[in-house]
Amino acid sequence: MSAAMGSLHAAAVSTAHDAKVEPELLELIRIRASQINGCAFCLDMHTKDARAAGETEQRIYALNAWRETPFFTGRERAALALTEAVTLVHDGQVPDAVYAEAAEVFDETQIAALIWAATVINAYNRIAIATRMVPGGYQPTPKN
Description:
The chain is mostly helical.
């Protein structure tokens, strides 16, 4: 199972890289989906990864209420709204307004990469929750 999940993660990262989606934005996507899904293991991992990538504590703490803060760019807001819609897709399809907002700041390849990133973290969340993965032990790999 871990090899398959590693392949999914690698594909999502590669797709995002090829589409020129910033790694920092991917961490915001991963954190936000993990907040919605209540995945403590993934929250621990991705908040640490975000901090290691230079994300501020203030923005990480405010991410759960991103709509109410001035801390996120229009591009980030569009990605977060899309992430929420994909994560909560059981409520219905991605609303046209959310997709249109994303299309104003991302091209089709980037939107596909964002949806893929949200889908992969949602899969990870479900596996981590179902297998009761314990948060706290993860440490980011130092960047050279």
